[in-house]
Amino acid sequence: xxxxxxxxxxxxxxxxxxxxxxxxxxxxxxxxxxxxxxxxxxxxxxxxxxxxxxxxxxxxxxxxxxxxxxxxxxxxxxxxxxxxxxxxxxxxxxxxxxxxxxxxxxxxxxxxxxxxxxxxxxxxxxxxxxxxxxxxxxxxxxxxxxxxxxxxxxxxxxxxxxxxxxxxxxxxxxxxxxxxxxxxxxxxxxxxxxxxxxxxxxxxxxxxxxxxxxxxxxxxxxxxxxxxxxxxxxxxxxxxxxxxxxxxxxxxxxxxxxxxxxxxxxxxxxxxxxx
Amino acid sequence: xxxxxxxxxxxxxxxxxxxxxxxxxxxxxxxxxxxxxxxxxxxxxxxxxxxxxxxxxxxxxxxxxxxxxxxxxxxxxxxxxxxxxxxxxxxxxxxxxxxxxxxxxxxxxxxxxxxxxxxxxxxxxxxxxxxxxxxxxxxxxxxxxxxxxxxxxxxxxxxxxxxxxxxxxxxxxxxxxxxxxxxxxxxxxxxxxxxxxxxxxxxxxxxxxxxxxxxxxxxxxxxxxxxxxxxxxxxxxxxxxxxxxxxxxxxxxxxxxxxxxxxxxxxxxxxxxxx
Lengths: 275, 275
Known about the structure:
2 copies of one chain form a homodimer. The first copy, chain A, is an alpha+beta fold. The first copy, chain A, has helices at about 15-20, 40-55, 60-70, 115-120, 145-150, 200-210, 225-230, 255-270, and strands at about 1-5, 5-10, 10-15, 25-30, 35, 75-85, 100-105, 120-125, 160-165, 170-175, 180-185, 185-190, 220, 230-235, 240-250, 250. In chain A, the strands form 2 sheets. In chain A, strands 8, 9, 10, 11, 12, 13, 14, 15 and 16 form a 9-stranded mixed β-sheet that branches. The model of chain A has no long low-confidence stretch (mean pLDDT about 95). The interface between A and B is large, with 56 and 56 residues.
């Protein structure tokens, strides 16, 4: 089911700036047992992204109504929210009082292999790099050509995700996920101040570790060789949950206790789906 | 008038990858006395962009038919072509055999002040930077948030265009134009191998100078201070033609013979509109 500005629909106008320029934001949410997981956090990130791009923040009640309408009768699935700056005259300049386009759609749960969570996955380092731009870093905006090119490099069905480096060679994230690793017993994750997406599950993990770990998570700028040599590594997002990474470019990485405890804590807290 | 895949239409499906990810390319063409200017060059750049992004190249006959349909009875105007990778399943991975979406639309000629060509314009250096990415450099793709943010910084109606620097501080282009300048009597333009758009008028000027100037155009990586101190400076695109730049951030630049001769040569060759 698709709602466009709260009404059933399946299309947007050609002049919409989402299509014209990728001028907008999106969210991807998991639905489990009829509940949208981490809805508050997703709506809060969307509002924060709007403020950053100077797109009017959508009415929260309207968005929650949309979520409830598209998930009616859905036990398990995916919801995607797209918010664009709406229509304007031709050209990059935005309308003085933009009227955003709000698209909320539900989708079947994707067929991820169940073994990915239990046994882990293989990663490959992508050739396509992430651009560094302080103005766009962290935002889940609609300019996603780099991710499209990166994931389409992967032609080996045994490789489940691509690891992306920035144009300076630092490891940043997966094509659709954030990445964590353990080095010297300490949990680490790449710094996202120059590029990358501030993922919801990443934020939940950072919150959880503040309470439950003695040492804060290190936010690093390191090359992929550091991850290849790590004691544990995992990728995470709202749909996959937590996938242990068992190899990067064929180099094996152990499955360890930090990954497993975070995975079970997030399941128990209903932040990620049970499987 | 709008054609979507050759048929009158005004919308695209929400699942189109142009909207979802900015996964596509575009062209903006001028129509003068019923003729589309530089049509061959635009279609050739579009095809080249498709090959670079691995989007199937659209049938040239179909595109030319669309151009002729949307410009029927149009003496003067603008045509925009958008080509997206079409629809796929949810997620960044492209369909195995993508069926691109082709959108061709005509628009009224924009109300640029006539004085811009004769007397020149004021530029301002934008705070929003252009990301460096060798994989995307030169392409006229649909990921245009940087240009949107840059042009929306400009709130002074006396400033007609923004000059964009890359994240390393080099001057690259305008928000909607390419830039040339004269230094020590030699015509120069920023190198676009790391970011920026290979503009059609820029390419026409480079071709023209190969025949008519003794010294080839220098392709440079310099900071904005070099342009501020230049002997002449101009910006160009398919619609504006050639606008002399008379000031950048308030610092005055002379209007000189190189700019004026290029402007009149391009008009005479019907590469740009007469006014």
